[in-house]
Amino acid sequence: MERKFQFSLGEYYHIYSRGVAKSTLFYNEKDYRRFMSLLYLANAEKSFHISNLQNLAYQDLFGIERGKILTNVGCYCLMPNHFHLLLRETGEEGISRFMGKLLTGYSMYFNVNRKRSGPLFVKPFRARHVNSDLYLKYLFAYIHLNPLSIKFPKWQNEIRDMDLEKAENFLKSYKHSSYFDFLDLKRVEGSILDRQVFPGYFQKPKDFSDFVREWVEIKRSYQGEPSLISEGSLISEGSP
Question: Over 9-57, what HEC string results?
Answer without folding.
Answer: CCCEEEEEEEEHHHCCCCCCHHHHHHHHHHHHHCCCCCCCCHHHHCCCC
